[in-house]
Write a structure and sequence with these properties.
183 residues; Rna Polymerase Sigma Factor, Chain: A; 10 helices; RNA polymerase subunit sigma; transcription regulation
């Protein structure tokens, strides 16, 4: 069985060369995970599907920009979908959380397994996994909440029942440690 990372890299190269089979491979391997990421950020499944579709159009058009020496193909794909989802939030295409149920869900500590699964899904030999493993579990979770799920610092503080300043400091220090480790 071929390495999934290698398959994704080859599929991106095929897209860059105009081969639609490469895009089909990317879609087959990653679309469901990309929708999951977009749903975590947007909290609206139909909008998440739209964002993933837009992300695939962008991936098709800009596959030539992928550089394997700068990171994994999967990371590049997820960065595209995350960026598009966060742009949708900034553009106001997300309904505001105003009902009580949504506010209560925000404060629940549900979804912890997602962050553990995301960490476990990283390639065991990847530099990012090695650097993330140096962070304690809660600080690693704050990074995932901010950069995978798209939570604001205030939302992270609310979900983890931390003071806002503490959440901000943990994220800032964790990113600094990751930058230093990755350099």
């Amino acid at each position: 069985m071929q390495d999934p990372q290698r398959v994704l890299e080859q599929a991106l190269k095929a897209c860059a060369a105009g081969d639609r089979a490469g895009l089909a491979t990317l879609y087959e391997f990653e679309a469901s995970r990309m929708v999951t990421i977009a749903v975590r950020i947007l909290r609206r499944h139909e909008l998440a599907e739209e964002i993933v579709q837009e992300a695939f159009l962008q991936i098709w058009a800009k596959a030539w920009q992928y550089q394997p020496e700068r990171g994994s193909a999967r990371g590049w794909l997820y960065a595209v979908v995350r960026s598009r989802a966060l742009n949708a939030l900034r553009d106001g295409r997300r309904e505001e959380l105003t009902d009580t149920d949504s506010l209560e869900r925000l404060q629940e500590d549900a979804g912890d397994s997602l962050y553990v699964d995301l960490f476990d899904d990283l390639d065991t030999s990847s530099r990012l996994r090695a650097c993330l493993s140096r962070l304690d579990e809660v600080r690693r979770k704050t990074v995932f909440m901010a950069y995978v799920s798209g939570y604001s610092h205030g939302e992270i503080a609310g979900r983890l029942k931390l003071p806002l300043g503490t959440a901000k400091a943990w994220i800032r220090r964790s990113l600094s440690a990751l930058r230093e480790c990755m350099a």
